[in-house]
Write a structure and sequence with these properties.
This protein is an alpha+beta fold and 142 residues long. It has two domains: 65 residues, Ribosomal protein L11/L12, N-terminal domain (Ribosomal protein L11, N-terminal domain, 2-Layer Sandwich); 65 residues, Orthogonal Bundle (Arc Repressor Mutant, subunit A), CATH 1.10.10. It has a three-stranded antiparallel β-sheet with strand order 1-2-3, covered by helices on one side. A two-stranded parallel sheet has the order 4-5. A hairpin with a 4-residue loop joins β2 and β3. α4 crosses α5. The longest helix is centred in the last third of the chain and has 14 residues. The radius of gyration is 18 Å and the shape is elongated.
Length: 142
C-alpha cells in the first residue's frame, strides 16, 4: 500500500524559461521551507529549450517540504506579442489597433495552447485566442 503525501500548498508562478528569478521563487515559496535553489535548478533545466519565454509552473509543496512541478504553456498574451513583435498591447483596445495577427499565426498559438485550454477543438481554441488578441488591440486577419 502506498501512502500519499499530504499537500501543504500549491502555487502557480510565471517565470522566465531557463533563467528563473530567485526573488520570485523565494517570495512565494520561502515560507514553505522548500529548497528554493534546487527548485530553481530543476525549473531552469526543464525549461532551457524555451529560453526567452515565460513558462508558468504549478508548484505543489508537500508537508515533508518536497515538491512537484507541473509545467504549463506560456500565457496567451505573451505568445501573441511574440508572434506580432510587440512589447505591449494597445493602450485603448477597441479604438486602437497596434498589430495584425494572421490566421496561420492564430492557429499556431491555438495548437500550442491547446493542452491548457478547456477545449480540444482547435477552432474553439482559435476563437479564444482571437478574443485575447482583440482585447490587446491586435487585429485578427481573415
Amino acid at each position: 500500500m502506498t501512502t500519499q503525501k499530504k499537500v501543504s500548498r500549491q502555487v502557480t508562478l510565471e517565470l522566465e524559461a531557463g533563467n528563473a528569478a530567485m526573488v520570485d521563487i523565494g517570495k512565494m515559496l520561502g515560507p514553505t521551507g522548500v529548497n528554493t535553489r534546487q527548485l530553481k535548478l530543476d525549473y531552469d533545466e526543464a525549461t532551457a529549450p524555451q529560453r526567452g519565454e515565460i513558462v508558468p509552473v504549478v508548484v505543489t509543496v508537500f508537508e515533508d517540504r518536497s515538491y512537484a512541478l507541473r509545467y504549463k504553456t506560456p500565457p496567451t498574451a505573451h505568445l501573441i506579442r511574440k508572434a506580432v513583435g510587440l512589447e505591449k498591447g494597445a493602450g485603448r483596445p477597441g479604438s486602437q489597433t497596434v498589430a495584425k495577427l494572421s490566421r496561420e499565426q492564430l492557429r499556431e498559438i491555438a495548437e500550442r495552447k491547446l493542452p491548457d485550454l478547456n477545449t480540444d477543438d482547435v477552432e474553439a481554441a482559435m476563437r479564444q485566442i482571437a478574443g485575447t488578441a482583440r482585447s490587446m488591440g491586435v487585429l485578427v486577419a481573415d
